Amino acid sequence: MRCLPGPCDGRRTHPRLVAMSTALLTDRYELTMIDASLESGRHARRSVFEVFARSLPGARRFGVVAGTGRLLELITEFRFREPELEWLRTNSVVDTATLDWLADYRFRGNIWGYQEGELYFPGSPILVVEGTFAEGVILETLILSVLNYDSAVASAAARMVSAASGRPVAEMGSRRTAERSAVAAARAAYIAGFGATSNLEAGRSWGIPTMGTAAHSFTLLHDSEEEAFRAQITAFGPGTTLLVDTYDVPKAVETAVRLAGPELGGVRIDSGDLPEVVAAVRAQLDRLGAPNAKITVTSDLNEYTIAALRAAPVDSYGVGTSVVTGSGFPASGMVYKLVAHLDDDGAWIPVAKKSSSKNSVAGRKFPIRSMHRGTAVAETIHVGAEPEFGIDGRPLLVPLVVEGEPDQRFLGPEGTELARAHRASVIQELPVSAFGLGEGDPAIPTHYV
Amino acid sequence: MRCLPGPCDGRRTHPRLVAMSTALLTDRYELTMIDASLESGRHARRSVFEVFARSLPGARRFGVVAGTGRLLELITEFRFREPELEWLRTNSVVDTATLDWLADYRFRGNIWGYQEGELYFPGSPILVVEGTFAEGVILETLILSVLNYDSAVASAAARMVSAASGRPVAEMGSRRTAERSAVAAARAAYIAGFGATSNLEAGRSWGIPTMGTAAHSFTLLHDSEEEAFRAQITAFGPGTTLLVDTYDVPKAVETAVRLAGPELGGVRIDSGDLPEVVAAVRAQLDRLGAPNAKITVTSDLNEYTIAALRAAPVDSYGVGTSVVTGSGFPASGMVYKLVAHLDDDGAWIPVAKKSSSKNSVAGRKFPIRSMHRGTAVAETIHVGAEPEFGIDGRPLLVPLVVEGEPDQRFLGPEGTELARAHRASVIQELPVSAFGLGEGDPAIPTHYV
């Protein structure tokens, strides 16, 4: 018997709607590798896996790590209970010994990582998982799903925030990505510096401020724009934001100020030639005696169109499609690689695939953000051994999970706020050239030592 | 008290992990519009909303509708229970009257739509929602999230299937999209003609065949490639598929055939200059006496690289990033528009936003796939009234939800199979020009009547 949220009354519901274990959000081969390594006895070899991206998407200057806090919670729920085991058994995915191993599984190893909100560059080992081979390999798919998507959104969002030059930006793209990704996207954008989201579940789950008033359908439903505006003002007061581009913008602005008075909160513009329309609306609002009414624009914006509006009297931006799809790069290209394992004599063996096009560096990494007078100058990655004291820079790995226990500071709304604050702090270390929107080299080079 | 899947033992868990109501997967403005329309009394006006895309992404020739069956289940779970209401109340999102309305909400209207797996073109009204304004508008975000993402994946996947010219294609992109989107992507790709997925939850939830054997880490874990292959063959028999590009491909192929014998199931190649490598491996397998061993390739494939391998002796393809991200177009650009509502005299009023750049056609639509000798020739969209009998074509709207009750045939694994079969059938109606991979006009024009 499974229960929905709310009182447990034994009501049966389709497993799709209540299957909250994250254990099957996994590629089949993670489980078959465990099965086969139980055969060879190698499953228990102590191993180190690392997550990194070979390059930054779109020849950008930096990336933003996001998803870590969310991931730690999903790992906690990565358990094989009877519904999962039953399905694996029925479908002969693995043998009985493996099923027993899975039934007992919870991650008991250690995870280090870049603190959520940290910046990353090509090769940055943003997550390091240490445990037995089996307990590490089984998390591969889930870890990459979360970090690849969330970091793609955060990395794009950070560019929009910087293009907005201090004006607030809100995430409004829930309808342009699958329904649960929408919540993750709102969270990632917030970490990257967005100020709010339209997504209510992101408000509930992660404590992100939510916003939104009305769409064109609301105006179209009423017999006149005036009737619609009046209803909205009655419901939310004159401080509400009215959508003014359903029919004729100047007429709508006139109606808005007439009904709401000088306390009109703001107007939203969702179409048209924005620089011109915005300037005209600003002048009209001032002329009509509503100089404090704000102008929000929301028409298919991305970092480039935001930058193009720098000279326009815009007060805030709402961004949809481009932020939730990583502005052209919806996946960050992160991979999860076995970089070392203990051999039978207790020595760490560095390992890497030997492929012409996909070179990886074998061995465990210890990354440092090398600094000069407060500015980042290199991503210095020490391979094989931890660097000694006296290094000129900031060590980047922090413990996230110790013997299976996640650090509570990084979870929930508090962890999300912490990540946002961390991003705000470390982004100031970047050289000015990092904020160019065009293609370019990473803001700092990666050095392996 | 809330319970996880499994016995209800009263264990408390963070709401993020058990919040299965889909009601907050919603933009805040959907709820504030209900609040304001309760003020004006217009919330109860009978209304029709339609979902359509103004154009096909990437100047493609056709799109594939996916997500519908999944959406119907999510709509069933779109209920405001105490946890949702409490959060809305605490955060003053809407007033008390609106909270009461939400508490009572379940969708009681009607939904028609293109059958899942159907093809669509610019303007195709792929979903039509009829109900009160409030009960229709509140579903906007969820409907668009699901259809935009799932159709983006299915539309890209259909091109890969056609590029593969009958060879099987498997979806392996779970790690390149957020963890729950991965399940939706596997489902959408399957509907579009992929044969299997690596994602286990997609197997459990939607009955999709799952596949996968081992990654490079499995080989790297062992003291030799031979030790790794031997373990895998012991676990899964000689019919397993061995990954042969960790070190040296010809050596690995030699080892594979030596250990598995002529019953070797297959080899997988994940890197390198594929046409050449594949040809060499095929020749080597034949020479070594394993002519039945299959060759699977999985190296960053998309519809173009698949097409480029047509002349190579590939037996099957595994596609990751490109399919789960819509091959460059991760959102389908679908919108949800109020197109008509009843006025106080009981007459249907067609409505549309008047904007220069985003023209919509007011009024309810009745689409027909016009046919000539078994081939589709136009998407004929009758506006305002249902066409009369005797039309030369296939009516495209089918009832999906009648007075709040979804048609069970479209749900679950059975609905997914039905959608896959429908796509396989209707895609044969397309003219040959529809299968060009370059940019072009839609395969058939859209005519409004």
From TrEMBL, chains A, B:
Function comment: Catalyzes the first step in the biosynthesis of NAD from nicotinic acid, the ATP-dependent synthesis of beta-nicotinate D-ribonucleotide from nicotinate and 5-phospho-D-ribose 1-phosphate.
Entry keyword annotation includes Signal: no
Listed name of the protein: Nicotinate phosphoribosyltransferase
Family membership: Belongs to the NAPRTase family.
InterPro entries: Aldolase_TIM, NAPRTase_N, Nic_PRibTrfase-Fam, Nic_PRibTrfase_pncB, Nicotinate_pribotase-like_C
Positions of the Nicotinate phosphoribosyltransferase N-terminal domain: 24-148
Catalytic activity: 5-phospho-alpha-D-ribose 1-diphosphate + nicotinate + ATP + H2O = nicotinate beta-D-ribonucleotide + ADP + phosphate + diphosphate
Pathway(s) it belongs to: Cofactor biosynthesis; NAD(+) biosynthesis; nicotinate D-ribonucleotide from nicotinate: step 1/1
Record's comment on post-translational modification: Transiently phosphorylated on a His residue during the reaction cycle. Phosphorylation strongly increases the affinity for substrates and increases the rate of nicotinate D-ribonucleotide production. Dephosphorylation regenerates the low-affinity form of the enzyme, leading to product release.
Top-level lineage group: Bacteria
GO function terms (MF aspect): glycosyltransferase activity; nicotinate phosphoribosyltransferase activity
Keyword set, alphabetical order: Glycosyltransferase, Ligase, Phosphoprotein, Pyridine nucleotide biosynthesis, Transferase
